[in-house]
Each structure stands twice: as C-alpha cells, then as structure tokens.
Write a structure and sequence with these properties.
By secondary structure, this protein is of the alpha+beta class. Helix content is 47%, strand content 11%.
Length: 154
Amino acid sequence: CTNFPNIQKVELSDNRLTEVGDNAMKGFLIINLIQKGIKEEPTVLTAKEVFKMATEWGAKALGFEDCGKIAPGYKADLAVLDVSKFYLQPDYNPLALLVYSAKAGCISDLIVNGEFIMRNYKILKFDEEEVLKNIEKIKKEVLEVLKKKQKERR
C-alpha cells in the first residue's frame, strides 16, 4: 500500500507494546500522539488515517486481503461502539471520537465473520464466569509454585 502517511518508525519497549496490544483503542491514540510529537506537527496524521492504519492498512500489512473494510467479498467483522458513554460526548465527529476517546469497554457488540461474538456487552461464545474461575485456579497454582521457589532460595 503506497498511501501510508509519512510517519516515523518508533521503537517501543515491550511494556508499551503490551499496553497497546491490550487495548487497540488506546493504541489508536498512542500512535497518533507519538507521531504528532515526533514531527512537531499536530496535523501529521488525521483520525481517518489512523483508523485506516488500524483497519484496512493493518489487514493488508498482515496479509489479510479480505479484511479491514466493509465491502462486498470482505469478511463481515464489525465492532459496534456504544456512544452513550459520557466520555464519548459530544459526538460531533464519530471517527475522531473513536481514535481519541474510545475505550475497549465502549464496544457493545462484536461481529466476527458475520457471527455475533458479543451482544449487548455479553460474550456469547464462552462462559465468562467459567473462564474467571479457571484464571483464579491457575493464579493460585502459580502462586504456590512461586512460594516453593522462594523457600528453595532461602
């Protein structure tokens, strides 16, 4: 894709990359603000360009030719943003709102390959409570191992 804006390559620490990966919405903002700071130019990236980087251009960069935009023949992947949240008001420019203000918790519905995965904030494909129970069990097991390791070091 030759339409990429003139942006600077930025090396981020593992912690920063994890932070961006944990919340794509935050990633939009970080990418945008870093570029504006490096270039010392507030208009270096528009909200539309940042959105395209995360969707259409991101899919192309990963080799997914049938993802990244809503068009005939493309996979039907869609996140529905709940703009009733107070931090998403006023919503004069929905795209800028998404890039600058949205959080992962704003997504009320998620469609992947044409199928609802989440509806009205409820995950449909697995039992959230069961996953949380398993996480708690694993956490306890890990803590036990760490306690044993600490005792061995003494």
